[in-house]
Write a structure and sequence with these properties.
Oligomer: single chain
Number of helices: 7
CATH topology: Rossmann fold
Shape: globular
Structural class: alpha/beta
Radius of gyration: 17 Å
Helix content: 25-40%
Largest sheet: 8 strands, mixed
Number of strands: 8
Strand content: 15-25%
CATH superfamily: Vaccinia Virus protein VP39
Number of domains: 1
Length: about 240
């Protein structure tokens, strides 16, 4: 099954994130930025899920009866909330160390999540109602093959949600010069030349037979922290369906 599609794992990236596994769930540790991003990302996911699957916005488990996969899940920071929203959740990550940490944390939390070590290729032949991949595509070796893999596991009538940094001077300053320079983000996490503009990502998605139905910026507010907005200069999210 692993050979069904072109491999997309960048081994250097996988090793980098694998070294952070033990500290992933520490909100003040090396993954602190992801903890700060999570509320805005989850709010966007919830809004998109309710709109796509005709939810009323009131249910505690809007994903009940649905399957969901978190591609590039790390140690499960986003996968666990998907499970709590009712989904039969799967997480896949290129770093085995992350999968080990994810399994241990899920077990301690009483959550039944299927964690898979490897790339999107490991999921060939499976399909999911919800496919999410947050801050991942900028770390893969072949973005087009990665998007094709995501498209391949999206069930008919399903929903996909992605996020990634935009390739702008602001993202370079904020994430690399300041973020990595200050230690707020582990050094070596980002390569600016691998960031995708919204237009580039849209072209990749359309090439895989997908259609973007919503795009929202993810920006930082001194008063509120990370929020969704019209400002896409730092980071952005997209909602995607089959064309």
């Amino acid at each position: 099954m692993a050979n069904a599609t072109k491999a997309t794992i960048d081994r250097r990236e996988a090793e980098h994130f694998g070294k952070l596994a033990a500290d992933w769930w520490n909100p003040k540790g090396s993954s602190a930025m992801l903890h700060r991003l999570n509320p805005a990302r989850l709010a966007y996911i919830r809004e998109a899920v309710d709109a796509h699957f005709d939810g009323d916005g009131m249910s505690f488990t809007p994903l009940a009866g649905k399957t969901a996969v978190d591609v590039g899940c790390g140690a499960g920071l986003l996968t666990e909330p998907l499970a709590r929203l009712g989904a039969k959740a799967t997480g896949v990550d290129a770093a085995p160390e992350n999968i080990g940490a994810a399994r241990a944390h899920a077990a301690a939390s009483g959550l039944d999540i299927d964690y898979v070590a490897g790339g999107i290729e490991e999921l060939a032949g499976r399909s999911f109602d919800l496919v999410v991949s947050m801050e991942v595509i900028e770390h893969v070796s072949d973005p087009a093959a990665f998007v094709a893999g995501l498209a391949g596991v999206l069930a008919p009538g399903g929903l996909m949600i992605l996020s990634t940094p935009n390739r702008t001077l602001l993202s370079r300053l904020a994430m690399i010069t300041l973020g990595e320079g200050s230690g707020a983000i582990p050094k070596g996490t980002h390569r600016w030349d691998q960031f995708l503009t919204p237009e580039e990502l849209t072209a990749l998605l359309e090439g895989a037979g997908l259609r973007v139905t919503d795009r929202r910026g993810l920006s930082f507010s001194p008063a509120r922290g990370f929020v969704t907005s019209v400002n896409e200069a730092l980071d952005y999210l997209v909602t995607v369906v089959r064309a």
